Amino acid sequence: MYLCQWHLDLAYGKQSQALEVLQMWGKEKMASSEFRRARQTRLLVGHLGVSPSHVTDEYVFETLADFERRSRE
Which of 17, 11, 61 lies closest to 40 in space, CA to CA? Predict the structure, then answer.
């Protein structure tokens, strides 16, 4: 499996707004790109040990080819 991650550090007090944007972006990626091949997605926010300003957006792919493949449709 291959894990594709984005790590973001948010401005203080902007976490809820940023999470809304990331969730909308995630839905758009799944609907209009090869990210629909992802087997699992997670949006992680640190609250214990990691700053709540740090967010990780993850996508798990079975193979590297699934991540790199372009639609032939």
Answer: 61
